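Predict the 3D structure for this chain.
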Amino acid sequence: MSEGGTTPLPGMPDDGPRTGGGNATTPPGAPPVPAVPRAGQRLRAWIGAHGSGSLIGGVVVAVIGAITTVALTALLDGDSDDSGRASPSASRSSSPGVQAESTPSCSGRTCVGLDPKTARCDAGAVTLRDEGRSTMLLEIRYSPRCDAVWAKLTGAAPGDTVTISTTPSRRQSASVHTGKTQYTSMLAVENDFSAQATAVSVKGDTEREIPKGYELRVGATGTDLPSPSPSP
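Done. Predicted structure below.
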């Protein structure tokens, strides 16, 4: 066994004890050569003596190459992260399910009798005309996406009623059961429509100065429709 507890490989020369690890044949005045570990010197000398073309030399070279490849691969893999993946929020905002949630489920005649909120016609709806007394407010609401109207009553009391009609035979009515707001189901309309809405305070409210059976009325026609937005 050589100094330092290192056993030389078969056929590998043992250089014996050295000091410093420098090259003893360095000419005076030349820049110092970095020290090379003793084991590295022996391995380089051994490979030089046997040649990489020999069986043992080829095996040693192959093992060193494999170790280097594994180390580089691990280093590169460690640098990768999730920066190339799409963020969950971006995937959800563009998914078909999100788009379907904002698309109305009806249009025109297919909306007749449907709840404007359930059918998603309330998004983007506008008030064509309104009328009020005290805390009661009656509105005719219109959805340009669904081509439909409905009546909405706020500031009401349980038992009050609200009705909308576009012809004597086409009407929708609703009663206030709880809370202070109620709206009717929808009616389909075209550009030349005419709608009438009526709200009735069945019991009245003396504090709000609304007599019993008071009727609140409002009407709207096609001329009240909002003008289409100009093309960009």
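The CA atoms of residues 21 and 35 lie 5 Å apart.
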